[in-house]
Design a protein that fits this description.
- This protein is globular.
- With about 325 residues, the chain is mainly alpha-helical.
- It has helices at about 1-25, 30-50, 60-90, 95-105, 110-120, 120-135, 140-165, 175-180, 185-195, 205-230, 235-260, 265-275, 285-290, 295-320.
């Protein structure tokens, strides 16, 4: 297990740490440029290569599991929030203070709390961990899970939650969301790769593409460090701790137990646990800017979930590896 943890921690520490250092000495344009490059070129190239080796015979199993994990996270977030609200109302002595706390948290903070719990960094951190800790034949589970999380989670239910609990000057119509989904380059790259599996490429090109995947992973983790380094304030730590515990401990634990109950074991179970327990995705900060959500809560959740990931990994390898 020590060797596995070393393999998992090494790229995270090196590239995220390098990003944190560079965030202090490089302009903000670097992170923006790197993010745009990964969105339009890097991640699509990664999924194109991975899709060429994806086992399409899995069918709808992984997408169904991915949707179930998002809905499970949403349910736990709402139940936990209601318990937290009740606790805060009991703790507050005067009725006026109780109303003030409730009114200030019910909208933007509740939406942010839900997003911090349901949206994971499956594309960057998740695929990195699964490629390091599991065999190549199980990569297709991780790829399909990540796509489901992005389509149903980030571009679907997350936008609905953000628009409901936040504020936006321009109305967000359903066809705008449909257009956003249809123009995601990663989806097109995945389907192209999936439908060109029969095309045999020269060994040199195949090898070069596989090496490019690791370059994309390194740059993606570097971007994570750059973005974390630009976060100026960490507030609402109490509720952010609760969201982080749900994201990196409770949800993956329930997913692992559920997978065991339904007969999914071994590395495939570990893939589901790792992907469902990834840190809060950086996309929540974009939603926070667009819909005027609680930025401090989301920033704190991102940082805390990364810390929680380092603590949780040994547990998942022992229990579900």
């Amino acid at each position: 297990m020590i060797e596995s943890l070393f393999k998992a921690y090494t790229p995270l520490f090196i590239w995220i740490g390098l990003g944190l250092v560079l965030s202090r000495i490089t302009p903000d344009k670097l992170a923006k440029w790197l993010g745009q490059s990964l969105y339009w070129v890097g991640v699509p190239l990664q999924l194109l290569v991975l899709a060429r080796h994806t086992n399409a015979s899995i069918g709808l199993l992984i997408p169904e599991i991915g949707v179930a994990v998002v809905l499970l996270s949403l349910t736990l977030a709402l139940l936990t929030w209601w318990v937290w609200q009740w606790f805060m109302s009991q703790k507050t002595k005067s009725e006026e203070q109780s109303i003030e706390v409730s009114d200030s948290l019910k909208r933007a903070s509740l939406g942010s709390f839900i997003l911090a719990t349901i949206l994971g960094n499956t594309g960057f951190v998740g695929l990195t961990l699964t490629q390091v800790l599991t065999s190549p034949e199980n990569t297709d589970w991780a790829v399909l899970f990540s796509l489901t999380n992005n389509v149903f989670g980030t571009y679907g239910i997350a936008v609905l939650i953000a628009s409901y609990f936040g504020f936006r000057e321009t109305e967000n119509h359903w066809w705008i969301q449909l257009r956003d989904i249809a123009t995601v380059p990663s989806l097109w790259a995945f389907f192209i790769g999936l439908n060109t599996q029969f095309v045999k490429l020269p060994v040199e090109i195949e090898s070069g593409l596989e090496q490019a995947v690791w370059v994309v992973i390194a740059l993606a983790l570097l971007l994570v460090g750059l973005r974390l380094g630009t976060i100026k304030e960490y507030k609402n730590l109490d509720i952010a701790v609760i969201a982080s515990v749900l994201k990196v401990f409770i949800v993956p634990l329930l997913v692992g137990l559920g997978a065991t109950f339904f007969g999914i074991t071994g590395e495939q179970r570990l893939v589901l646990v790792l992907m469902s327990g990834t840190p809060t995705g950086l996309s929540v900060l974009i939603l926070a800017e667009v819909y005027d959500l609680d930025r401090n809560l989301l920033a704190s959740s991102i940082a805390l979930t990364f810390v929680g990931l380092f603590l949780a990994l040994p547990l998942w390898l022992i229990w579900f590896g």
